Amino acid sequence: MALQQLQLSLQFGDIPDAARHRAALPRHAVTRAIRHALADDAEITVRIVGEEEGRELNKSYRKKNYATNVLTFDYAQEPVVLADLVLCAPVVAREAKEQGKTLAAHYAHLLVHGTLHAQGWDHETNEADAEEMEAYEIDILAELGIKNPYL
């Protein structure tokens, strides 16, 4: 499988336990997860944030007053995918622990999920779209050597 080209900016905001999150997100792993989910070349910024920044962004853009695991800001889908993915470190860590996953595996899942959103995939439109997106995520994660994240 030929992977798409990716121009990546990886940023870390003010987050608790920063060393743990940086270790779970080496640049090569972030690049690999995103490239496996791309259908076209892309320029993507990934920003890892704390709870406060995550809540403010979710409140400002989605009118929801809580921090969520991943927010996708998609600006263009062609000729290249242009997007920002914002992942909230405390939420991701909490979910990984609750789901019995490694932090790195959960980050990979959310990077794939956010990248699919950046390309127009949407799981909130109807059940069929949700099932199709979930199945595609499972396939991509299997290519990355990560077991089904929904089990």
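Above is the first protein from milestone M3; the second protein from the same milestone is given next.
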Amino acid sequence: MSRPVVIDSQEFGREEGSLQGEVPVATLARLHDLLTDTAGSLRFRIDGRRAAGGRSQLLLVVDGVLSLLCQRCLDAYEYPLHLRSLLEFIGSDEDLTQEELEDDARDFLPHQEALDVSVLIEDEVLLALPTAPRHEECALPGSGAAPARVSPFSVLAGLRGKVD
């Protein structure tokens, strides 16, 4: 996606449009501070739908691998991204019911006549990333190289046996 792809969220859902492609990670500038490498791309697919109430929905699917910085050992690691988001568009004057507000299966966004697909993808990826990324198992920096520290009170432990 070298040129911005812009869709009307209402029309795209109403017409049940479909769009797929790849977004280079290097073009997702707001992610750069979280990444150790901006190489590669993310595959995406957007399918338009009509919700039961007549609203437009987009099903966004994003797959790929991002290189994140482990917050524990400070090394890079490959984070597999498998994002599935159901977005429902509402009018600016439309109120949501309590049931809709509590529904975690979909997110509500205001209708946008000029929705930039790459910005939408970047927003959803930012929301999907872990707040403190880390390996499943890793050691703290320098934990293997530092010599064992001897406690100054270890001498007292030896004296305790002599006094009894």
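Note on the second protein: The mean pLDDT is 85.
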